[in-house]
Amino acid sequence: MNNLYDLESYNYELPEELIAQTPVEPRDSSRLMVINKENKTIKHEVFKNIVEYLNEGDLIVVNNTKVIPARLYGYKETGAKIEILLLEKLSNENNWKALVRPGNKIKKGNVLIFSDKLKAKVIEHLKDGSRILEFIGEDIWREINNIGEMPLPPYIHKKLENKNRYQTKYAKIEGAVAAPTAGLHFTPNLLNNLKEKGIDIEEVTLHVGLGTFRPVNTKDIRDHDIHEEYYSISKELISKIEETKKNGKRVIAVGTTVVRTLESYAKTNKLSGNTNIYIYPPYDFKIVDALITNFHLPKSSLLMLVSAFAEYNFTLKFYNEAVKEKYRFFSFGDSMFIY
């Protein structure tokens, strides 16, 4: 029996060629592993067939966050090249928290030039190494959208031809620096098929941060300082969740970000705010009955969340099965439905 708090318990062997570098077309032609956690059964499907595993009256909850093209390239007034990664919009409309490269050369007071229409002044150097930048320009947001690049995960080495391929079809609230990847498999047609079957689809917002890629690096996973992310959920959705449960139907989370949002609400009763909820085995889920999610990195907090939901030993089993069956892993990879 593995120690559930030992980081090594969440390691697994993954051949590099199974890390998906590009998304499949169409979106819903990706593979789907269907996992029954009660009967401990595993089936192999295609994502568009997920309709067959959902019932009338079930409630699907998706994350409507939109990824911003957060990677910007420019230069200092001296002509030296620089690169920044926007992390978080601050309450002052033009101010952003950002990571900068080269970190040792970008000082408070420096002006960074990205285009004729967009500059930024470094107004603070924070203890964690990030900077506060004040952007200067007429239509700052439009220019960031024009010249920024999608901040793809560190394990994706191919350039993305189409920016929209790293957005879900229902993305609308800008603020994420990583996509809620479980949602990338849904097409407008599939969403219609679900609605026609009497399945309700509702939205929450959680702005996915860079911390989502950060591996846990403490030997005892309980010592890990988990990342914080902003979330928002409506009163109307809370009522729908209560109604769904009352009718004996299921609440299905599309992605770990939706799990974090719903379970944060269950824990705090707050409709919005920053959450640093950390879910690992054993965990008593209050709202989520079923989960659609991609295959996650070894030693990641997301793998721990899945292990808490599906039970640790069984999770290990279906991850090993996915490797054996050559599923595609991570952000552009295949998916699983756990119920």
TrEMBL record:
Catalytic activity: 7-aminomethyl-7-carbaguanosine(34) in tRNA + S-adenosyl-L-methionine = epoxyqueuosine(34) in tRNA + adenine + L-methionine + 2 H(+)
Keyword field contains Acetylation: no
Major subcellular site: cytoplasm
GO cellular component, as recorded: cytoplasm
Gene Ontology biological process terms from the UniProt entry: tRNA queuosine(34) biosynthetic process
Molecular-function GO terms, alphabetical: S-adenosylmethionine:tRNA ribosyltransferase-isomerase activity
UniProt pathway annotation: tRNA modification; tRNA-queuosine biosynthesis
Localization per record: Cytoplasm
Keywords associated with the record: Cytoplasm, Isomerase, Queuosine biosynthesis, S-adenosyl-L-methionine, Transferase
Group of enzyme by EC: transferase
Enzyme Commission designation: 2.4.99.17
InterPro entries (alphabetical): QueA, QueA_dom1, QueA_dom2, QueA_sf
Record NCBIfam families: PRK00147.1, queA
Assembly and oligomerization: Monomer.
Role description: Transfers and isomerizes the ribose moiety from AdoMet to the 7-aminomethyl group of 7-deazaguanine (preQ1-tRNA) to give epoxyqueuosine (oQ-tRNA).
Family note: Belongs to the QueA family.
Stated name of the protein: S-adenosylmethionine:tRNA ribosyltransferase-isomerase
